[in-house]
Amino acid sequence: MKTQQFTFRSELPVSVEEAFAWHARPGAFERLTPPWEPVHVKHRQNGIKDGAQVELETKIGPLSTSWKVEHLDYIENEQFRDVQLTGPFQYWDHLHRFEAIDNGHSRLEDRLEFILPGGSLGKMLGKKFIKEKLKQVFQYRHAVTASDLKAKAHYQTEHQYIAVSGSHGLVGSQLLALLRTQGHTVRRIVRKNPTPENGDILWQPNEDKFHTCTIENLDAVVHLAGESIMGRWTEEKKKKIRQSRVQGTKILCEGLAEMENPPKVLVCASAMGYYGDRGDEVLTEASSKGENFLAEVAQEWEEATAPAREAGIRVVNARFGIVLSAAGGALAQMLPIFQLGGGGRVGSGKQWMSWITLDDLILGIYHSLLTEELSGPVNLVSPEPVTNQVFTETLAKVVNRPHWLPAPAAALKLAMGQMADELLLASARVIPQRLQQTDYDFRYPELEMALRHVLGYRQEMPAGMSLDITEGTHQPKYETKEAASSF
Questions:
Q1: I want to staple 403 with a disulfide (CB 3.0 to 4.6 A). Which of 274, 339, 352, 396 is the partner?
Q2: First and final C-alpha spacing in the chain
Q3: How far apart are CA 277 and CA 429, in angstroms?
């Protein structure tokens, strides 16, 4: 039986023991899943030892299919294997191999052996597509693995207990995965339906309640929860935007301040909307507040952390830029239009966009948690902001499509009202001065490189990575079968 064989290798900046432990921790699957791949975990048994199973739901084009794999051939610090029980392939066998180079470096090797569905026709039609897709996926996986392990080696921090609100959102879900793979214990702060056995903490901002009796001995808290600012801003929507941030943060911080043993640090989300519409002015954390609705909300949001600060907790107000991810946010909404060739500048295109990849955002939060010199406002943005004209041109270049259809400011204001003025047309040229002063190492400081990473459009193999693709004859060692697909 002819199989396709795919081997991807890269060097990692940690020992083989640490590289293997990272893959074995909760959160590794979430960190390794590319943001452009719609994958949902339906059921999972903990760990990667023999017999543990994972059931996924994934999409291939418009088709939805289930994928069930089992872990086998576990040898600590050497290897583990994923074998498809049911799924989209006729056969799938993925061996993860780890090899020591020296005390501080190791090699990761992913060996895939698979048979495409559909027999000879499926092989003929899908061979080129699946190889390119796997190349994109494993370049992403190895880049994230190396980046996260680089953080592990750099910070060398002891195990911590960290609570996170907004853990189901775009940022929170990836932050949870990062913290867990770094070896920390994470507890979710939730508004309803807490799961006590998982350590969930109940937070009821609408009832002025934060159940601090269950959260002694926390080392740190990250507060991310807040109403989405996307969509047309009715008066009711604006009320929810303000209240979810200001009132919710105030209640949480008052609860933390009342604790007998409060956490050492709180990182509370804020936004670059604090600066308002400032044209070409270069903005740092020392710059003044803007004059619009978002600026007022951001100021009140940051002021709501005062009870925690007054209780001696180190507070970081993390002013987020535009977060780049194919999984959600502004880029995910823009992407389909640009992929169809209908993208273009927004308004004049002269407004500055201060952006950051999701990976740099969560690593910036982690840096803020562990860097004692940081307190007060910290801009979580790339060091290279660009105008909207440059942003849209670069996005079109990355997806290899024209960008000939601008979105006129008047049409945007008519369709979206105040939101268009403050979110789409406002200019904020923000610099991450405090991150730079504390030597944060940006993974993706330049826009084209960042977009290629988050969208899976890498052109060249990064240094230290190699790829072999071969065909061979193989008698499957494990029984497997294809899963049915549905719309």
A1: 396
A2: 31
A3: 9
